[in-house]
Amino acid sequence: MTDLFADIPESVRLKTPLKLPPPLSEIELLDEMRALAEKNNPADNFLGGGIYNHFIPSAVKALISRGEFYTAYTPYQPEASQGTLQAIYEYQTMLCSLTGMEVANASMYDGATAMAEAAKASCRITGRKEITVSSAVNPNYREVLKTYCSGADLKLTELPFDPDSGQATRDPRRATDSACYIIQQPNYFGNIEEVAGLAEKTHANGSLLIVSVDPISLGILKAPGDYGADFVVGEGQSLGNPQNFGGPGLGLFAAKEKYLRQVPGRLVSKTVDRNGKECFVLTLQAREQHIRRERATSNICSNEALCALAACIYLSLMGKPGLKKVAELCLQKSNYLKNKLGNKVRWPNTPSFKEFMLTNGRLVCVTELAKKEALDKLAAEILAA
Amino acid sequence: MGNPADRVYSKEHEWAKIAGNTAVIGISDHAQDALGDIVFVEMPKVGAEFKSMQEFGVVESVKTVSTLYCPLSGKVTEINTELASRPELINSDPYEKGWIIKLELANPAEKDALLSAQAYDEMLAAKK
Question: pTM of the prediction?
Answer without folding.
Answer: 0.88
